[in-house]
Fold:
Amino acid sequence: MGQISGAETLVMALKKNGVKRIYGLVGIPVTDFARLAQNKGIDYVGFRREDAAVNAAAIAGYLNGEPGISLTVSAPGFMNGIPALAAATVNGFPLIMISGSSQREKIDLSRGDYEELDQYNIAKPFAKATYRIDRPQDIGIGVARAFRTAISGRPGGVYLDVPADMLQAVIDADQADEITYQPSFMNLKQVADIDCIAQAKELLQQAKKPLLIIGKGAAYAKAENEVQSFVEKLNIPYLPMSMAKGLIDDTHALSMAPARSLALKEADVILLVGARLNWLLSHGEAPKFNPNAKFIQVDIKAEEFDSNRPITVPLLGDLRSVMLQLLNQFDGQLDISEWIDELQKKKQENIQKLSQKYLLHTEPMGFYEALNVLKKQIDQNPDIYLVSEGANTLDLGRNIIDIHLPRHRLDVGTWGVMGIGLGYAIGASLETNCKVIALEGDSAFGFSGMEVETICRYNLPIVIVVMNNGGIYRGVDIENTTTRPSPTQLSSKGHYEMLMEAFGGKGYYVTNVNEFEVALKNAIELNGPALIHVEIDNTAGSESGHLTYLNPKISVEESKA
Structure:
């Protein structure tokens, strides 16, 4: 059959593993590899920065339950992709980041090769695992290990290093076909210990104020049917984490998101399903949580148990299997009507308070008034995917905008890193063939704003909404005593919509609710690239959004000392 290159063998291995798309940015030494992959039938999507490409692959992995594939050049391009690789690992998204690299003998002796960098070892702290393929003969096992590692147990990011000389080396074509393969049984079911299941049942039955917390791990596992059946069979109140919104429709009667503070403070038994007691849940600590609460945790990774609070009952296994085990233990509802009534009362009070904020008309608009426009549009079009990032834009939007379908809210996740917005939006659009709204704070948009060109180049039905209050957090900084722009200040009178228009998309500039409603409706119906610049009152917003307590304050007088 003749000989083929390492690059062609790598394409063969990826195709045997079902890869249909690569997100990347080309240059030395991977340009021809990308061309080859595309010519062999793998869709290649080219980006303007590597982090956006890797983010797109990561969200593809989350949505599909299979590793998303990204490609970067060596050294600086590899480094640009590292934050997205790390975020995927922390978030538990299956991802394989492939990067071209220099020849090992030159790297190891520091001989000053072009873009010389020991990428393999640098990636280790930021990935679930790293692998380097030095010979074409090892491509099959290298790709197989990358796929199995990315998807098994708790998913994560895998780095795959492919030196330039390996891509150029040759191998017999029949040998290449023989060594490349798809690993089998990568998603084995794993049920929890039956004694732990029995103890979990007993603890829930004894609880006076039980609570279920659903995390994005349950959304990734596609456990919506099992979780909703459990909630409704037991009549147990629940709280969804931000990317678990929509796993059960946010309007469900047992969703206590509007009464979150009361639910966490009073719950005596808490069942964590695909959620972790990390900073997003205040580490499970008082005063946010009942200090006497007992925890049941469902997780695929045993090391997660007891990470912050003692876990009374650890349920080690995959979410769908464990939730079915639990579901089969109960005959009917828990006797907790007083607890449900208490939560419902607080829920309705808070919903009423929130609704009053929508009526505060100002020009320019405030966040509540503007985000309510988006809420109404998502209610009418629940199949639209919502990507969100920013500080106030993200935090307030999470509370205001209801999500009605699983995996339809995509945001910064566990690491809280900005810059995911347009990469996630592009990945979601291509993987689902659905419309996407990318809801961006003006600061957050700046991290990946040039991907507007990518959106236009591929003519994707993505509507970017930039909430511009002129700053990081807000445009007005009363603590700035100089004539220079504040450290948090950005351009409040810029025209972000013109960036979209520069590449052939549709741009809108709106300053009030009526204009925003018309523009959003038209942009969605356009079914193509659009950007709506929403002018927001530059005094609106709070420092660090909901995370002020994490941002140490230094007085102006102290800073002068």
In short: The chain has a mean pLDDT of 95.
